[in-house]
Amino acid sequence: MSLAQASPKQTWLHLAGEMLTPLPEGALWWADRRVLVVSDLHLEKGSNFAAAGQMLPPYDTGATLSRVEALCAGLKPDTVISLGDSFHDRRSGSRLPLPYAERIRALTGAQDWVWVEGNHDPDPPAHLGGRAAKLLRLGPLVFRHEPTGEVGEIAGHLHPVARVSGRGRSVRRRCFASDGARLVMPAMGAFAGGLNVLHEAFRLVFPEGCMAFAIGEARVYGVPQKSLLPDGGAGSGGRWKL
Which CATH code fits 11-227? Predict the structure, then answer.
């Protein structure tokens, strides 16, 4: 079964009878319901690392919010679903600089904003607006943080990336992973890492394998399973790693 259709500028993904648009910003657009889905924003990851003595530049939250703001301004969704790990830890809300907190409140006040519970942030900061949910069901689709393999599921948590070769070299890109029945979202956070879609963790979600939708500079590219490479190298059978 074909999972995607592509034009020179756009890729569409079919899931449980619904047509969805994976976006190069790492978000998913469900046009029929005017729903925008983002995942694993990991806001304030930089400040978390800084508190532990690893001095990352403190700009990750601003960069991630800018992408979300641009998407909301352009698409004007009725609903935004943030699929868990929106905040890097339980204290992220208290570390947020006031300008960032105001930007989040502007987003949550402009549309129906749902914070899906994640393993990093089971209790999203109440003062930032929006509503919390362990999972959300809309029509044939179910939105949760950790994938279970349920048909119609859209999840995050695994931070999928695809490694492919071409023109004598390989590239590693964040990606959407889907088998046409379920989908795992890429992490959108500026400092979020990634796990190769050939890692054994994805086999529990996609027993028959999956197709990757790799994020390019301006569009998303469908990559069939046979073209995917493990991080250890083509045919190496080496260990996969983040």
Answer: 3.60.21
